[in-house]
Amino acid sequence: MARPTDASAFLDKIRLSGGRISNRALQQQLGWKDEKYWKIHQQQFDAGMIEKGKGQGGTVILISKSNPTAAADVAAVDLNDVSSNLSNASPDKSTSDDGVIGEDIREYDLYKPVLQQIQTHWAQRRQLDSCHCEITAQQGRRDTGGSWSRPDLTAVGYKKYEYLPDKTLEVFTFEVKASYDVSIKGVLEALAHREAATRSYVVYHTAGRSLDEFPEAVRIEELAVRHGIGVLVARDVNDFTSWDEIAVATRNSPDPDNLETFIKRTLTDDAKSQLRKWL
Predict the structure, then answer these.
(1) Which helix (H) or strand (E) holds 230?
(2) H-state helical runs in the chain
(3) Is 164 part of a structural domain of the chain?
(4) pLDDT tens digit string along 166-187?
(5) What stretch of H or E contains 167?
(6) Can you tell me the distance from the alpha carbon of 109 to that of 117, in angstroms, rounded to the nearest whole number?
(7) Last residue of a domain, one of 30, 45, 68
(8) Could you say which DSSP state residue 209 is in?
(9) pTM of the model
(10) Residue 211 domain boundaries
């Protein structure tokens, strides 16, 4: 019988403990010295297999669909405010209450054209020296850190300023919403992404209509402005001249640990390779 790897032994012990165990107890059960234990611990955290919990000496939480307590808390968000807004948000449905829908395009089918517009026209208008954008919604069962932790699209880039000594790294996240789902839920999801991004956006496809024609237009703009979320309205997803920036995304300074973890868990190897070249 093949000897289990250190990683599988580490994860099996957590699983046998009900999905949650203190670092001290886990290390004792494994019989590992500090150097080996924390090396495997960090590897599994970077891979998105575990989360770090509170408690004396810290706890290890196994991430799985059957262990919802491992979902990461959303930083910089008033949870009571989010819960209140969610309870009043429009439910998912194929048409809004007043029948606004236009020529409907599924959210999934919006990803590629939105990606194209961001990679070309939007990035150019941001005057980034270089930019890489990719779809990050389609990652199968891979867990990227909890509820609403995975944006639909992510763009990374940098800008070199004339009077500043270093390149400025930018990480932009985008939540994409179809014309049948134009509600404040999009702003709330973008807000959740803000803990690991410098700027976060929601892109609403309105199928030829103005945002004002949708029932929650005022609430969308008010909530976005209050929390610094950018709102892009695309009447025609394939024509950037039809896009409108309703609310400007304010720059956020995420915790470096959150940013590093997001990059490791969410971006592809190509994106990571590009980042290394820039830095």
Answers:
(1) strand 230-234
(2) 6-16, 23-30, 34-46, 79-88, 107-117, 123-125, 185-193, 217-227, 256-266, 269-278
(3) yes
(4) 888 999 999 999 999 999 999 9
(5) strand 167-177
(6) 14
(7) 68
(8) -
(9) 0.69
(10) 79-278
